[in-house]
Amino acid sequence: MEIAVFNIAGQETGRNVELNTEIYAVEPNDHAIYLDVKQYLANQRQGTHKAKDRGEIAGSTRKIKRQKGTGGARAGSRKSGTIRGGGRIFGPQPRDYSFKLNKKLKELARKSALTYKAQANEIMVLEDFSFEAAKTKEFVAIQNNLKIGDKKSLIVLSEANKNIYLSSRNLQNVEIVIASDLSTYKIMRAQKIILVESSVIKVEELFKI
Fold it and tell me: Contact at 8 Å (CB) between 196 and 172?
């Protein structure tokens, strides 16, 4: 699968890059994508939610009224969950939401996500570029040249670049990742995937192809 290489001016360079069909043209597996995205979102949860039960509420345990003869329901201490100010019944407790997925399933999920983006012509290859200093205005100019300013875009670099990251940090519709941090969630969330030319090989190395 060949795809044209663009420069930061938004023009074709006349060169093409071969995208490996074992990554960008596989048989998509929707359930694998679902599980990988579910795991990613679960891992973001802190799980620190907590409500006090009746054993953690400060107060007397004296019986507040006699058992029978009042015409109302029987009641014990004021810490009961049925009384205002009492403990929470079956309230949330701290827990770990993360769960394990096999490496091959996660790999299939990422390949499936990239395949969907390739089929929808939402992948673009951009020749390598860099900034001498962090300049948001220059980054916005590149977005406008590539006509992606109004789309959620994911720019994949081969390695970390501080100036590119800082230049894009204040922009809402763009995210910078390195190839090794590419996840199914980020791929599916983006409307446009921008592969910097050197990152194409890094992605293949990620899948050991």
Answer: no
- Cite the beta strand spans of 95-148 per DSSP E: 123-126
Domain tally for the chain?
A: 2
Report how far residue 199's alpha carbon sits from residue 191's, in angstroms, rounded to the nearest whole number. Answer: 19
- Residue 209: the pLDDT is 62
Is the model's pLDDT at 48 over the cut of 80?
A: yes
Query: What predicted TM-score, i.e. pTM, was given to this entire model?
Result: 0.84
pLDDT at residue 184 above 70?
Answer: yes
Strands 123-126, 192-196: parallel, antiparallel or unpaired by DSSP?
parallel
pLDDT mean over 77-101 = 93
Amino acid at 150: D
Q: Choose among 103, 122, 113: nearest CA to 26.
A: 113
Instruction: Tell which residue, 128, 130, 125, has the closest CA to residue 162.
Output: 130
Q: How far is CA 178 from CA 86, 131, 203, in A?
A: 50, 16, 9
CATH of residue 184? 3.40.1370.10
Separation between Cα atoms, residue 195 and residue 9, nearest integer Å: 15
- Same domain, residue pair 28 and 73: no
Domain end position, chosen among 66, 96, 126: 96
Burial class (CB in 10 A: 0-12, 13-18, 19+), 65: exposed
Give the separation between CA 56 and CA 51, rounded to whole angstroms.
Answer: 9
Residues 195 and 144 in one domain: yes
Clarify whether residues 38 and 120 are in a common domain. Answer: yes
